[in-house]
Amino acid sequence: MKFCLTLGLALLLANLLGLANTQQATKSSNLNDVSLEIAVLQTLHDLELTPPQLTKLTEFAKESAPKEENRQPSKTTPEFATALRNLHAAYTKGDDKQISECREKLDGLMEKQQPELDNSVVITDQAKANAAEALKVFNVRQTGAFLTTLLLTDPAELLVSSLEVIRQLKNSKDKEREIASVTEEVRWLVHGLD
């Protein structure tokens, strides 16, 4: 369990490091970028980092970020795009009330419209190498807050619960995709990135 927590925390931190260099507000028209920036801004907002902590984390991020990434184009409605940009602006301002209102609206639209965003993150070797050192930047409260974001899954429980889902699928292609997805997740849970 300790290994799983440590690995999970390091990987989440590596994700943050890979993205944290986007923490300044941008005028990106790419909704994938805006969505990823929101993830970073939300994490930074939740952790309440001090200016020295932000400076140190930014140094790690510059070393850790992937050089270039090819993302699938986003598929959203104009209404969703506006809601996403409004949430980004709210995080940039740091207005908690506006963040809450924008988050609620965006969550409702996500549920109804199911937009397609490519939020995948490449975890670079440098991000993995920097994760342990970057974790030392956090105080106890911040580390605890970060740990609460982990969704811990037991591989055996995942396999058992997935069997029910797979049995209910009628289409053989859907079954193959679900089996491949579960296999990949269990492989990661058991062996990590290696």
Strand content bin: under 5%
Strand count: 0
The succession of helices and strands, N to C, reads HHHHHHHHH
What class do helices, strands and sheet pairing give?
Answer: mainly alpha
Low-confidence stretches: 1-10, 21-25
**Helix amount:** over 70%
Anisotropy-based shape: globular
> How would you characterize the largest beta sheet?
none
Q: Averaging pLDDT over every residue, what do you get? A: 79
Number of helices: 9
* N- and C-termini, Cα separation: 18 Å
The count of domains is 2
Question: What's the structural blueprint in terms of helices and strands?
Answer:
Blueprint: H1 2-19, H2 31-47, H3 51-64, H4 78-93, H5 96-113, H6 125-135, H7 140-147, H8 155-168, H9 172-191
